């Protein structure tokens, strides 16, 4: 009997139970993955005796065996096993790693990746690999269950609510993890309000911190912050790909158009693999930045092991590209250890700039297909949205650099070499969206602080990890003002006419930001009276702090740890609203979209 005939008989024999078994495996997989993540939280978050730790790790190893078994079962139930393995090549690779790890553990009593990582100076790669594998299976199973409609067959949610819920889920998880005893160097656990504030700041890639990251958090706590930054940044720029699949939830295209500052629909709907491209490019850029940092630390990290040096490199690369601004140095990059390491400063500047530029612009400028297309057809140029993102970003960096150099000559730039002054001026201008600092922001003069407030208010570009009203909003408003001044018939920008719907949306974003910041600043003047009474501080500090929070920047004049409980809540809400988008929140609150074709008679009034 031929192998194919044997295979066909097996398929016929298994056919009756296929659907029932595979569905049960998915549900059981979800329970196992959830339990494993819970066990890992206990293992890493609490001090455990050796016996307890062994039992917890034994359970995790058992889940690995289950993953291998369920994958083999799915292969057996598939009519074309070879084709199925090729289709699920990444999962097959993960299973191969698990098999190797299991064999190594049985034969030597130690995981292969642990021995390998220790031999090259990385003590915690096995911890990362375990967390990655468990998180991977949990995410994949949830995505499969939702996509196939087995869990949410008739749910009709608009993407604004789903987007907000996803951020709340990450923030909640981060809060619980940061409150675990092993996450801090101090005895006990982090206070709830401080933990949720820190989790919100990291997830919303803002960077306002109540504590010194490097001294307050343990290595485990710093890993949690790194994961929150990465998840928060990816959650924003990758959410556009969810809209491609939003029809599975019964979401209409008109609802898609309400979502603020996601990628242009014509661009991302044409690419079904957007999420994969986003992940690949993000990880590639961050890895390149981490490698460049590793080679550039010099004498800035004395006494650190090779693995710890790599962790510093990865942490700052991820924090920079995601515009988070959280640093493992006391006082940020103004710390004496790296304050004059201009190589690191330029690497961070580049990562922040590209992170604030936006993935759509990066794909258009550096995507292989787009580059080849422009080389073969020189008359084709970058897209309209990319022109706005690139030209306005460069213009804002230029304005900020020149202004900082002129205004701070006798201030924070005093005593620096010409190259140091140039580096610092470019850095503080380019990182207006990230919160990194190479000088003490509290020592910056009032004129430059005021200009930084304006730059933070404008923020980054659409589809990026930065905040603010975005360069697209600024460009449309300026184009409309120019149309009014010149009495033109249409709003024009880069030889394109701006539709009325975009113009209306731009003014809505601008108004929401103005109102949101104004209300929050007013509330802060009430709750933070003690700060205003402190010598050396004024209402400008509160304005700077609030605009930094609402624009998800993270720069501060040093008053963040001084905030009262009510002040922390106000700033925390500002960070969240600024991250998910004002129109997104407005639409989620506003409820179901309704459209009418009623047109009332025109009304006229004097303007101005």
Brief write-up:
By secondary structure, the protein is mainly alpha-helical. Among the domains are: 1-153, no CATH class; 382-590, no CATH class. The chain contains 27 helices and two strands.
What does this structure look like?
- It contains 27 helices and 2 strands.
- Helix 19 packs across helix 20 and helix 23 (500-527) packs antiparallel against helix 26.
- Among the domains are: 1-153, no CATH class; 382-590, no CATH class.
- It is mainly alpha-helical and 608 residues long.
- The radius of gyration is 26 Å and the shape is globular.
- It has a two-stranded antiparallel sheet with strand order 1-2.
- Helix content is 67%, strand content 1%.
List the SSEs and their pairings.
Blueprint: H1 3-45, H2 50-77, H3 81-87, H4 89-108, H5 112-119, H6 125-147, H7 159-178, H8 192-203, H9 213-216, H10 219-237, H11 239-244, H12 253-258, H13 265-268, H14 274-294, H15 306-321, H16 342-357, H17 359-366, H18 368-376, H19 384-407, H20 418-430, H21 446-458, H22 471-486, E1 492-493, E2 496-497, H23 500-527, H24 529-533, H25 539-550, H26 565-580, H27 582-590
Antiparallel strand pairs: 1-2
Helix pairs in contact: 1-2, 1-6, 2-4, 3-4, 7-8, 7-10, 7-27, 8-26, 14-15, 14-16, 15-16, 16-20, 17-19, 19-20, 19-21, 21-25, 22-23, 23-25, 23-26, 25-26
């Amino acid at each position: 009997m031929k192998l194919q005939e044997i295979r066909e008989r097996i398929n016929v024999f298994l056919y009756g139970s296929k659907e029932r078994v595979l569905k049960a495996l998915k549900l059981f997989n979800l329970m196992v993955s959830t339990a494993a993540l819970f066990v890992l939280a206990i293992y890493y978050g609490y001090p455990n005796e050796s016996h307890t730790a062994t039992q917890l790790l034994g359970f995790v190893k058992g889940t690995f065996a289950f993953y291998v078994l369920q994958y083999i079962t799915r292969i057996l139930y598939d009519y074309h096993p070879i084709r199925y393995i090729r289709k699920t090549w990444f999962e097959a690779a993960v299973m191969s790693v698990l098999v190797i790890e299991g064999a190594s553990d049985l034969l030597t009593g130690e995981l292969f990746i642990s021995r390998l990582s220790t031999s090259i100076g990385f003590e915690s790669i096995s911890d990362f690999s375990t967390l990655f594998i468990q998180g991977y299976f949990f995410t994949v199973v949830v995505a499969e269950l939702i996509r196939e409609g087995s869990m949410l067959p008739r749910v009709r949610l608009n993407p604004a609510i789903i987007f907000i819920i996803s951020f709340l889920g990450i923030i909640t998880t981060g809060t619980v993890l940061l409150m675990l005893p092993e996450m801090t160097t101090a005895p006990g656990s982090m206070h709830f309000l401080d933990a949720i504030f820190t989790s919100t700041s990291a997830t919303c890639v803002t960077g306002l911190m109540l504590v010194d990251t490097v001294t307050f958090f343990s290595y485990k706590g710093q890993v949690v912050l790194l994961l929150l930054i990465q998840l928060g940044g990816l959650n924003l720029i990758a959410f556009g790909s969810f809209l491609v699949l939003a029809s599975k939830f019964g979401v209409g295209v008109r609802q898609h158009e309400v979502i603020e500052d996601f990628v242009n629909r014509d661009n991302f709907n044409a690419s079904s693999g957007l999420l994969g491209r986003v992940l690949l490019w993000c990880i590639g850029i961050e890895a390149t930045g981490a490698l460049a940092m590793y080679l550039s630390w010099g004498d800035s990290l004395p006494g650190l092991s090779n693995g710890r040096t790599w962790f510093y490199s990865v942490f700052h690369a991820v924090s920079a590209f995601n515009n988070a601004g959280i640093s493992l140095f006391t006082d940020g990059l103004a710390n004496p250890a790296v304050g004059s390491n201009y190589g690191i400063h330029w690497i961070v500047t580049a990562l922040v700039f590209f992170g604030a530029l936006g993935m759509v612009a990066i794909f258009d400028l550096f995507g292989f297909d787009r580059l080849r297309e422009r080389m073969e057809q020189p008359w084709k140029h970058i897209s309209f949205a990319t022109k706005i993102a690139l030209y306005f970003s460069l213009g804002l960096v230029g304005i900020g650099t020149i202004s900082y150099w002129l205004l701070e000559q006798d201030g924070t730039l005093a005593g620096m070499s010409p190259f140091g002054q140039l580096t610092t001026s470019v850095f503080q201008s380019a990182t207006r969206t990230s919160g990194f600092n190479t000088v003490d922001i509290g020592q910056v003069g009032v004129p430059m602080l005021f200009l930084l407030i304006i730059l933070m208010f404008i923020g980054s570009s659409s589809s990026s990890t930065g905040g603010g009203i975005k360069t697209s909003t600024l460009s449309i408003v300026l184009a409309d003002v120019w149309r009014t001044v010149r009495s033109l018939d249409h709003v024009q920008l880069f030889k394109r006419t701006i539709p009325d719907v975009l113009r209306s949306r731009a003014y809505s974003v601008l108004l929401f930001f103005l109102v949101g910041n104004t209300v929050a600043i007013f509330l802060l003047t009430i709750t933070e009276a003690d700060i205003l009474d402190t010598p050396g501080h004024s209402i400008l500090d509160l304005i700077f702090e609030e605009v930094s929070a609402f624009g998800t920047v993270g720069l501060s004049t040093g008053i963040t740890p001084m905030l009262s409980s009510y002040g922390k809540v106000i700033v925390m809400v500002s960070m969240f609203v600024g991250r998910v988008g004002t129109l997104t929140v407005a639409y989620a609150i506003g409820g179901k979209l309704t459209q009418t074709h009623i047109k009332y008679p025109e009304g006229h009034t004097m303007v101005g």
